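Usage

Read records sequentially. Each one opens with the input sequence:
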Amino acid sequence: MQTLNFVKLGSLRNIDAFRKLAADLKLNLPCDEKILKAPDSPLAQPIEVQGRKVGNRWAVHPMEGWDATLDGRPTPPLTRRWENFGRSGAKLIWGGEAMAVQAAGRANPHQLQIDAAHLDDLAGLRQKLIDAHRLHHGRTDDLLVGFQLTHSGRFARPKGEPCPRVAYRHPLLDQRVGVTSDKAILSDGEVEELIGCYIQAAGVAADAGADFVDIKHCHGYLLHEFLGAHTRPGPYGGSFENRTRLLREIAKGIRSSRPHLLIGVRFSAFDTVPFYPDPTQSSGKKLGPGIPENYSACLPYRYGFAIDEAHPVNHDLSEAIRFMDLLKSLDIRLVNISGGSPYYSPHLERPAAYPPSDGYGPPEDPLIGVARHIAVTAELKRHCPEMIVAGSGYSYLQEFLPHVAQSVVRQGGADFVGIGRMVLPYPEFPSDVLEKGTIVPRRLCRTLSDCTTAPRKGLISGCFPLDDYYKALPEAEQLKKMKGGR
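and closes with the structure output:
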């Protein structure tokens, strides 16, 4: 296998060159000729979300923070990040960042926690975001802010070392996180206790001022894993009804205790088998392109959700469509579409030019990954046009993000364009697009993945290459040394 060569988007001089690249790759990517300012831009149009007016079509995705205190409370860098979310001008803040409903469910020792003991901290954090938005953009009555509720499950590391709790034994992922026996599987009793934690966390979110909660079902974390628990016996595994029982019981409990709190779900609508760097193409710190784990002994592949059981490197949207129908029946109208996992298929979840330190080189042109996100989201939106749908995977587009985003929203492929990594170095990106019709290229996220590499190496999270705040920290020099000076 040869190392993949692909055209870096930053080298393209204009929109015609971008369109030619997409055509050469045989991608049907929506793309406008010019960036339109408000009020003419499709991205500037307000939309009603279950009785609430939301002022534009930009959303800020939740990201997994690595810089809270050891007891899960905000710190100055974390607060600054939330203020930047408010400063962005996006009118939908989808969770800010993942908040663990149990201490044992944190993905790292510095993740935010949500329970009664953290109520005042979370209320203050949300207020900082609101205040920043008001300062930079005036009105806040058209701003919708949610909290994302999560348990990291297989990827829990509450004290820095793997401490996995799983829905079922996985023949390919178990060895990656040290699962060696059935002791890691949550019992039905533990699942019922967890349901109570989600319901209580939703009450804390409501008391802290959140407009909605996201019951996170994506990226390989616990509730996403339960969606794929085909081999688990009992009430939470096997049939589709059983594998979605967690969601139904959590939603029922929230509706009973907090009937006015909106509920959203971010879910991985497509997936694949775990990937790893091709050892024949890896040398020193250079990671070879990703290749799939040998799954031949696992067929039919019944260890995931929205995966083709016969050809598990491919996705199968039939259950994702069925899941959308379930959300509609539960009157959950806020949906955020993602795919894959940052742990075993990052090229699927967040297309990037450069891998994090524990990842692998791109196994495909990242633009193909962006197109996959957009196409899947559009198909699910067409199936449930009454749902309010946010799309993912846009940051890799860089200079051409506004051109594609406008076209996607105009054509009805999504209601909101979600960005995550892009707002770390360039929080004003959404407002620059709408107010100026221009962007600042030197501030664009180039998907260098340092925001992932740093925390995976025990440092705080942030954009060290482009954000002056992080450039000045001692961790910036530490990261450079860890990466060998790159």
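Summary fields computed downstream for this record:
- The first helix runs from residue 15 to 24.
- The chain has two domains: 9-445, 448-486.
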